[in-house]
Design goal:
TIM Barrel; alpha/beta; 330 residues; twelve-stranded mixed β-sheet; two-stranded antiparallel sheet; 10 helices
């Protein structure tokens, strides 16, 4: 076993796998209303290729957690089978999913039966009209149905990821938390990051972690969670004594790069060692050229060794990644 170590003492054990760059929502902070030019089918990894690369990560490189992302991973037809085959690897990793929830009402049971451990659903507001304004789709009820189906299938705890946007839902943090508490959901607010396809992100327009917590503290009693944060991206707080928590992922104002244990595999087979990296390492080409598992593992190790100490958002020279979040995978 060779660890995915970088030159700053960090070891990646959490693999985020993007299964598609396509999405059926058009969240304004992610992509333009007309969508993007999607990856050609032939450039996207096949199911067998995805599972093989995950298997290398798990079997040779110490990966213990696999999270499937997108785009929207529920658009990947072979998702349940990919989940099943991933859980059958040795040693079996923890497998989770980040989704917008559309279609989850139809697939939650199949995903649970395939071995899925957990699910995170993106939902920025509890108001139908604001959901449509943010996503440009009137699908709020479908997301709620997906959340309900995930809970009914036993995919607890269901976590909700929310982004607050200035002038739209920035005053709704307490309301959304109350909505989640009523349903037994764990809510996590995420600072808006410079990962939009339009490259329109402006720091002064971002709703910060401090603003979010101040808003919540006016309505709820918040206390630090008793468990150590470790490498988790979210700062977790007990709400009114618990057991439910609320989290804040403050990638911009409270970066946690020093404890990062994540690495990303894009839908077209590129290794991205930091969500904000502009460099990618190609595994698809050597894989399709006949490289064996040991050769692919070595390429992966080299890609991780070059990881920078931090994302550099505060550096004047910072440039957004060429690809948006929907193509990198969260």
């Amino acid at each position: 076993m060779q660890p995915l170590a970088d030159s700053h003492g960090r070891v990646a054990t959490d693999l985020r796998v993007s299964l598609t760059d396509r999405c059926n929502l058009r969240c304004t902070y992610c992509m333009p209303a007309e969508g993007l030019d999607w990856l050609p089918h032939e450039e996207t990894l096949t199911d067998d290729e995805v599972v093989r690369l995950i298997g290398i990560g798990v079997g040779l490189l110490g990966v213990t957690e696999v999270r499937f992302t997108g785009g929207e991973p529920l658009l990947r037809r072979g998702l349940p089978d990919i989940v099943r085959r991933t859980k059958e690897l040795h040693p079996s990793p923890e497998v989770s999913l980040t989704t917008n929830g559309l279609g989850l009402s139809r697939t939650a049971t199949a995903l649970r039966d395939a071995g899925l451990d957990r699910v995170n659903v993106s939902l920025d507001t509890a108001r139908r009209e604001d959901f449509a304004r943010i996503t440009l789709r009137d699908r709020f009820d479908d997301v709620v149905a997906g959340i309900d189906a995930a809970r009914a299938a036993g995919l607890d705890p269901v976590k909700v990821n929310a982004v607050l946007l200035r002038g739209i839902n920035d005053g709704q943090a307490p309301e959304l938390l109350g909505w989640c508490l009523d349903r037994g959901l764990h809510l996590r607010f995420i600072e808006q990051m410079p990962l939009d396809a339009q490259h329109a992100w402006q720091r002064e327009q971002m709703v910060t972690a401090d603003e979010i917590l101040d808003s919540l503290a006016a309505h709820y009693d918040l206390a630090p969670a008793p468990t150590a944060r470790g490498s988790a991206p979210a700062e977790e707080l007990l709400v009114d004594g618990g057991p439910l928590t609320v989290g804040v992922i403050a990638s911009v104002t409270r970066p946690f790069c020093g404890s990062c244990d994540r690495v990303r595999l894009t839908a077209d087979g590129q290794i991205v060692n930091c969500l904000f990296s502009r460099d990618e390492s190609d595994l698809r080409t050597p894989l399709r050229a006949g490289a064996d598992d040991a050769e692919l593992a070595e390429l992966w190790v080299k890609a991780m060794a070059a990881k920078l100490p931090g994302h550099g958002i505060d550096d004047p020279s910072f440039l957004q990644p060429t690809r948006p979040m929907s193509a990198i995978g969260g």
